[in-house]
Request: fold
Amino acid sequence: MPDSPASTRDRSRLQHSRRALAHSVSPAAWRGTLEFRRADPTVAIAVRVGLAGAIVLVAGGLLGRTEIAGFAALGSLAAAFLRYEPYPRLARKLAGVAGLIVAYTAFGAALGVAGAPIWTQVVLVSAGAGIAYWLTLVFGITGPGPVVMIFAAAGAAGFANTWADAASATGAAALGGLVGWAVAMAPALSHPHSPSRVAVARALAAVSATEQQGDQAVAAARAVITRARETIALTPQRRVDEHVHELIALLDAAENALCGRESGLSRQDDFARLEAELRKVRSDIRTPRTPDTPLPVSASSPDYLRAAMDKALWFSASRMAVASLIAGTLAVAVGLDHPLWAILGTIATLQGVNYGHAVQRGIQRLLGNTAGALLAAAVIFADLGYWPLVVIVVACQTAAELTVTRNYALASTFVTAMALLVTSIGHPAGTGIAAARVGDTLVGVVVGILVAALTIRPDDRHHLTAPEPTEKSAD
Reply:
């Protein structure tokens, strides 16, 4: 008797998940974690994130409130989000990010004051992970993601024993968020065209990439050009000057270069030179003068309501919440010291844009956490005191931003060291905290990869090095 269509689909899906799991332990997957990608230069952004952290940590030390300085540092991480947004949109969205960090700090502190059992904390924080992820998807919040919010909640839950503790931790996060917002927005006063310049530079780089990658990169290049036009269109009217028209002319040239690929025209050398010029911070750097070109009438407004109703986003958020719950529950069951940290590993893994990327992020998270935990253990063992810790934390924060777009394992090394050292500032801890971090991360990553494999989309085949056999040939 022939199989029913439903059973055939189920068997095909099971085979797809099985091949996905096999990929996670393949040499190719682990080799991929060591690759360094070509990435946008991020020195200015990294310096701003480090500066925001330095301001709040120094203030905490000078005011004698070192026990809550870590929460202020978490709030200042708002500056690490939305690095490519134009300033008018950045101002609104970054305020929302800072508000989320503060809200999750308050949420975690309330759990701590209420004396919530660890099982209750796992359930509620897992739900919070799903909500935070859904919000980042709906509002297009790029950057570290909900990991920062959940880490703030976990830290506050362990810190707050009284409502006074909860208020001080939440207040510190709010002040840190304000500093992060101010530092991220400060360049708008002196370099108002920076987001537009970076957007155009990225467009030129995308067009240049088509000469090596061929037709498969053309669609992506057009999308980057479209985003650059939207960024320029958000320029306030009072800021529209000759340079804005020059940037539009460069985008026109980039679009013409895409159209001229078939005729053999190459602008790669010109675009590489102009890209380098556009990325310079100095305001007196100018691209070649061009005739005025019309400014885009307006940028398309994001349809947040439509995004909020998107079933795919609801599925992704629900998957995140369920996977977080599984990871946290497993961490509690095996007796790990910080089970909420297991949720962080799951979140980091499931933020991948496809299964192959999720596996890569999971492995890189594990490797980076291991290296970062060893680094933090050495610093904690040295017992350097508050001010040397501030210097190391700021250095790690800056290094993480410099490397995050090139290799997530390396960035995760600095992030982990920073997180553990910030934790040790508020709660003096021994070197055992490093081993606890690695154990929790291992649980979180394994759960994240398993859930990603079981829920993989049928059309997600980016991780496959060879075509999957058809149902016919499989039989």
Notes: Confidence is low (pLDDT under 50) at residues 466-475.
